Every structure is written in C-alpha cells, then in structure tokens.
C-alpha cells in the first residue's frame, strides 16, 4: 500500500472527469469502503444508491442551484443516505462513509467530489433532499446526506499546501487563547 499520508495530501476535490468508465472491480472496492466505514454503536444506518445512467446523473445535478455540477460530469455518483431513526449519530455515520468512499477513490487514482444535499434547498419551495428522494424512489423518511460524484480525473489539482494547514487550531494540553 502506498503511504497513507501522501494519499491524503494528494486528495483534492475533482469536479471534472473524462468519459472513461470506472472498472466494475473499482466500483466494488469503493462500495466495500462505504460498507465497512465505522458507525456509532455499529448501527450502520446508512444506505447507498449508485447511479451511472447519464440522464439520471444530469437530473441529480439539478438538486441545487450551485455546487452540484460535478454529478452531471461524473461516470458514477453515489447517493449517501441514512435512516435517522436507527442512530442519533446519523450525520456522522453518513459522513464517515462518504469520506471512506472519497479516500478509496483516491487510492484507486480516481477523482471525487462531495456534493452536500442535507440542509440545502433546490429552490424556495423544495429541498435538495426531497428532490433527490423523488427522483430515485427513496422513502420519504430517509435523509440524503450527500452525493459523491466519481470518475477518472479530468483535471489536475495540486496536492494540499502544508503551509495552509492552520496549525494554530491545534492546542496542546489545554486551550490557550491566541494573542
Ligand atoms: C461537508 C462537505 C460539503 C461539501 N459540499 C460541496 C458541494 O456541495 N459542492 C462541491 O462542489 N464541493 C463540496 N465540497 C467540497 C469542498 O468544497 C472541498 O472539500 C473544499 O473546498 C476543500 O477542497 P479540497 O477537497 O480540494 O481539498 C464539500 C465538502 C464537504 C466536506
């Protein structure tokens, strides 16, 4: 395995993808990463809907006015949703799974981007969550946390700049107010 630290420094949000498909074995590894992600009390309240159909990807990219365009360009998007009655830590449970998806994708050399759905509006009347659920026949009592768009990288991004790490956010031993 490659150095994990190098992997997390190299991972950046990728919003443009080539037309090349993601091999089925890579899709399986990505879904395994989602399914083994840890959850509070091992409640595993999260569900995943994979979408590869171009027309549906286009429709999903309209879930909000800004920030969802990468879905239409992706060759695969994974909708990460939860049953909130299964765990009081459902936001965290969904988020950890989404993060595992992104890290596994990076390890496979693929690009990905998190598209936030929970708490976002599509327009004045409709939430992004309701719109996505209606499109994909997802039961109304589920919550869509996010959609992870994925594909072969169609843009190059520089690795994370270590100078931008905000080390001042780390307090050693106790909280020390900053001058
Ligand atoms: C909770 C969360 C929500 C995000 N929502 C969106 C989004 O809706 N659309 C988008 O293009 N990127 C979204 N991103 C990606 C962030 O913009 C990106 O991670 C951040 O700017 C840092 O850039 P990097 O991932 O390239 O290091 C989101 C990331 C997180 C963790």
The CA-CA distance between the termini, in Å, is: 42 Å
Q: How would you describe the shape?
A: globular
Q: Structural class, from helix and strand content?
A: alpha+beta
**Number of β-strand runs:** 4
Computed CA radius of gyration, to the nearest angstrom: 17 Å
What do you see in this structure?
Helix 2 runs antiparallel to helix 5. The protein contains 6 helices and 4 strands. The chain has a single domain, classed as 3-Layer(aba) Sandwich (NADH Oxidase). It is globular, with a radius of gyration of 17 Å. It is of the alpha+beta class. The protein has a 4-stranded antiparallel sheet, with helices on both faces. The model has no long low-confidence stretch (mean pLDDT 97). Flavin mononucleotide (FMN) binds next to strand 3.
Descriptive keywords:
NADH Oxidase, 179 residues, 33% helix, 6 helices, binds flavin mononucleotide, alpha+beta
How would the blueprint of this fold be written?
Layout: H1 4-10, H2 24-36, E1 46-51, H3 54-60, H4 69-73, E2 76-82, H5 90-107, E3 110-116, H6 128-136, E4 143-152
Antiparallel strand pairs: 1-2, 2-4, 3-4
Bound molecules: flavin mononucleotide.
Summarize the structure.
The protein is 33% helix and 17% strand.
